[in-house]
Amino acid sequence: MHIAVTGAAGRIGRYIVRDLLAAGHSVQGIDAVAGSGLQVDLTDAGQVYGALAGADAVVHMGAWANAGMVPDVRTYGDNTAGTYNVFQACADLGVRRVVSASSNQVYGFFSAPPLYAPIDEAHPMRPVNSYALSKLAGEQAAEYFSRTRGMEILSFRIMGARVPSELPGDIAQIKSDEGGATKLLWTRSDARDIALACRLAVEVERVESGAYNITGPRVVLEAETRELLARYCPSTEVREELVGAAAPLSCQKARRAFGYQPRYAWSEHTYHLEDNE
């Protein structure tokens, strides 16, 4: 397959490109940064059409990666315009499969604990900043194009994405301040697992459009997840299916739909660094 990847120069995008190439796909990297393939401003619809022509599928990661990187009006405006332009261009060019980066921030854990765990995709949306709001708008645009244009668009609600070299420091910080780590529920996602999820989602023959949680397999602390939730999120309803150190964010839907099974179970005693680190 010929797959276009927006945000190809980003921290996660680089791993997605590498994984797709290793699997034998051809890849068109697209980014606002020069030297990483096609330099494209996703808010310019004409540039997006030109960049996506000839693609069989698209992995859309290009966006401001969090609130506060630029003024809120740009975070929301650029992210929503870029995502809409990608979907519209795909619809008009005949690209029927798109994987689009959303975020666990749509659930609002930055300001309030989850209502229940494991957290599935039916959990209420509670965006608390311009970035989360832009991701929710992107999911709504995905539903629109899926319904009106027959596309298969998967919105990945990714939690705690990190490249391997960042994870030891993150784990040390979480260990030193367990109570302050509730925003991401003591969970991190290895960029290599996110790349795997993207590849599986474009390769599967048929798949249902919609939101899919994507995260690592477990909390990074050597603790029972139930105990952490009871201690720091006492209002959260903990359901029977949450066992051991399993991540509170459930990826069962992604597992059933396209076989996602994260490979890198990081913890304070288990690291999975790359060979050159």
Order of strands, main sheet, comes to 3-2-1-4-5-7-10
Model regions low in confidence, pLDDT < 50 over at least 5 residues: none
Instruction: Report the CATH C-level class of the domain at 2-110 and 119-158 and 190-216 and 248-258.
Output: Alpha Beta
Number of strands: 11
Shape descriptor reads globular
Which oligomerization state do the chains in this entry correspond to? single chain
Report the sheet with the most strands, covering strand number, pairing sense and barrel closure: 7 strands, parallel
Rg, Cα atoms, Å? 18 Å
Proportion of beta-strand residues: 15-25%
CATH superfamily of the domain at 2-110 and 119-158 and 190-216 and 248-258: NAD(P)-binding Rossmann-like Domain
Could you provide a short overview of the structure?
This protein has 277 residues and is of the alpha/beta class. The protein is built from eight helices and eleven strands. The protein has a domain at 2-110 and 119-158 and 190-216 and 248-258: 3-Layer(aba) Sandwich (Rossmann fold).
Describe the structure.
By secondary structure, the chain is α/β, with parallel strands linked by helices. It has a domain of 187 residues: Rossmann fold. Helix content is 35%, strand content 15%. It contains 8 helices and 11 strands. A 7-stranded parallel β-sheet has the order 3-2-1-4-5-7-10, with helices on both faces. Strands 6-11 form a two-stranded parallel sheet. A two-stranded parallel sheet has the order 8-9. Strand 1, helix 1 and strand 2 form a beta-alpha-beta unit. The longest helix is centred in the N-terminal third of the chain and has 22 residues. The mean pLDDT is 96.
